[in-house]
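Sat 14:20. Reprocessing the chain from the morning session after the first attempt stalled halfway. Input below, unchanged.
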Amino acid sequence: MKKLWVWVGIPLGIGILLLLVMIVGSDSGAKANLQYISLESFDGRPAKLGYIDKKVGTGPALKRGDMAMIFITGKLKDGAVLLSNKKGKTLPVQVGTEQKGKGPLGPAVDSGLVGMKAGGIRELFVPPDLAFGEMGSPEAGIPPKSEVFLEIELVQMRQN
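Finished this time. Tokens:
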């Protein structure tokens, strides 16, 4: 029985260990790709918007003043979907207007679009102070201090 344990148990243990290393390694690789944009929160404090490019598009990069046609899905940490137009029409966004309070999506999305290329997909990690703040939005079912996770696909762009 002891020889069986050596022949079966040790290779099995090594296999489990290698699997754990692969899982932990893949997670830390994703975090290594996380980049940050420094912004000002709604109350004037410094805040950081995190993002990861899941797919880099082609062509020129979006800049302020350009028009973007996007698909966007927003979720809370628990997976509850806040918004999505994936099955509908693309949403037009003029990059640079969100900062001035004229656009529908807020400064985090506005800043998160800059630098994307057509066909690209970017995940944004929006901290509470750039999203719904300390109070959340009870009428919309958003708890206080909620992080928001957005996936944006830049379908098309027009440079200005």
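Helices lie at 2-32, 107-113.
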